[in-house]
């Protein structure tokens, strides 16, 4: 679709690694290596010379303390000119013609922090002028100070995790446990079907591990082919153990992976994080449709990020309340993040690639993607096939 100044942004191609549950096939791979790999694969897939790329955008939600700027590390690949740096909307502003955009996450390799008290003691010891002063500082360390601190995926403003917010949405919107489990089962079944017929596999660049003895990773490993509603019903709620309905089965798993595309235009909206954190897409989607000059009924394919089944069903409920006719036959037709996985920084580019490919297969003129995000943010984008 044309941007405000009339420039068009096209999604040319997309490529991703397999998405693997954290702690499994990609657990020993650094996020920066996944990001570099998928960038090289995308260049090779499109037969594009790195010198033709004007800017590189690469996101990561939980960065490594050792590699805080993954986009810069990707841009330093020998395929790219050294002048490339991060960019935002370079194409729309007229500053770039070709942008490689992507994201990566390695939730197997999250930074583990020292407690604040231990950090203070270590700083004090490092500044000590004598061995005695250093030993006195160390003598104040207690066992509780040695407990590591993992970064919490929680809202800074409310202290609530996304799972707690999804639980709240399920209660306030009266989304039943059965409805959530049915949506999650649908996601796994459709993702398994799309893997078997090659639609999802066409997006994936096989990962060849550095140790020749290790198996090549060719597909997403979070898809549960043998699950059922009966098995899902046995799982206990995670975030509200007494009255809750959000479980590991109807939530997206912690995932490792990377993805990249060549490139796009967007619409963003936000809600109060203390309200329904993941409900902003009900405001972002109308903005995107309005800017594109189309109606909901014009959409041939829709991709909705599945952080939680409760969130997807709440979003759909909100769109239905606007009088829009909801046709599930065009929504997440190859499953979604619940089955495929959700490496935080990589999911957006994965969904763009999936949507664009399915639009081609269905000969759809318009497609929509919708993503909820931390901070009560919602992202929506309309693609037009030309």
Question: What is the element layout, followed by pairings?
Answer:
Elements: E1 13-16, E2 20-21, H1 31-46, E3 55-59, H2 70-75, H3 90-93, E4 99-106, H4 116-126, H5 131-138, H6 162-172, H7 177-196, H8 229-233, E5 255-262, E6 267-270, H9 281-292, E7 301-304, H10 309-320, H11 337-340, H12 347-362, E8 366-373, E9 377-384
Parallel strand pairs: 3-4, 7-8
Antiparallel strand pairs: 1-5, 2-5, 4-5, 6-9, 8-9
Give a structural overview.
With 386 residues, this protein is of the alpha+beta class. Among the domains are: 116-146, no CATH class; 162-202 and 217-252 and 265-384, 3-Layer(aba) Sandwich (Peroxisomal Thiolase, Chain A, domain 1). It is built from twelve helices and nine strands. The chain has helices at residues 31-46, 70-75, 90-93, 116-126, 131-138, 162-172, 177-196, 229-233, 281-292, 309-320, 337-340, 347-362, and strands at 13-16, 20-21, 55-59, 99-106, 255-262, 267-270, 301-304, 366-373, 377-384. Strands 1, 2, 3, 4 and 5 form a five-stranded mixed sheet that branches. It has a four-stranded mixed sheet with strand order 6-9-8-7. A hairpin with a 3-residue loop joins β8 (366-373) and β9. α4 (116-126) packs antiparallel against α5 (131-138). The longest helix has 20 residues, at 177-196.
């Amino acid at each position: 679709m044309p941007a405000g100044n009339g420039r068009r942004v096209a999604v040319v191609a997309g490529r991703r690694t397999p998405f693997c549950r954290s702690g499994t096939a990609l657990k020993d791979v650094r996020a920066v290596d996944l990001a570099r790999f998928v960038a090289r694969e995308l260049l090779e897939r499109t037969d594009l010379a790195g010198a033709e790329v004007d800017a590189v955008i690469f996101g990561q939600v939980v960065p490594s303390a050792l590699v805080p700027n993954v986009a810069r590390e990707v841009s330093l690949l020998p395929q790219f000119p050294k002048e490339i740096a991060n960019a935002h909307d370079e194409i729309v502003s007229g500053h770039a013609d070709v942008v490689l955009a992507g994201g990566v996450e390695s939730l197997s390799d999250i930074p583990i922090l020292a407690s604040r008290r231990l950090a203070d003691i270590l700083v004090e010891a490092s500044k000590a002028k004598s061995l005695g002063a250093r030993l006195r500082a160390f003598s104040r360390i207690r066992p509780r100070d040695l407990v590591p601190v993992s970064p919490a995926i929680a809202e800074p403003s409310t202290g609530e995790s996304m799972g707690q917010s999804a639980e709240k949405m399920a209660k306030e919107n009266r989304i039943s446990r059965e409805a959530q489990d049915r949506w999650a089962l649908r996601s796994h079944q459709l993702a398994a079907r799309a893997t078997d017929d090659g639609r999802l596999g066409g997006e994936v660049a096989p990962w060849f591990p550095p140790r020749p003895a290790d198996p090549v990773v060719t597909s997403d490993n979070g898809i549960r082919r043998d699950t059922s509603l009966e098995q899902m019903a046995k799982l206990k709620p995670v975030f509200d153990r007494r009255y809750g309905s959000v479980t590991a089965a109807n939530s997206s798993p912690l995932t490792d992976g990377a993805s990249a595309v060549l490139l796009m235009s967007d619409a963003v909206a936000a809600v109060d994080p203390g309200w329904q954190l993941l409900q902003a897409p009900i405001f972002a989607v109308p903005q995107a449709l309005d800017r594109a000059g189309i109606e909901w009924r014009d959409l041939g394919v829709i991709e909705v990020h599945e952080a939680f089944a409760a969130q997807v069903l709440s979003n759909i409920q909100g769109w239905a309340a606007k009088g829009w006719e909801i046709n599930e036959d065009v929504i997440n037709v190859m499953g979604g993040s619940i089955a495929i996985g959700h490496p935080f920084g990589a999911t957006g580019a994965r969904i763009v690639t999936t949507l664009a490919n399915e639009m081609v297969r269905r000969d759809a003129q318009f497609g929509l993607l919708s993503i909820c995000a931390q901070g009560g943010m919602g992202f929506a984008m309309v693609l037009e096939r030309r």
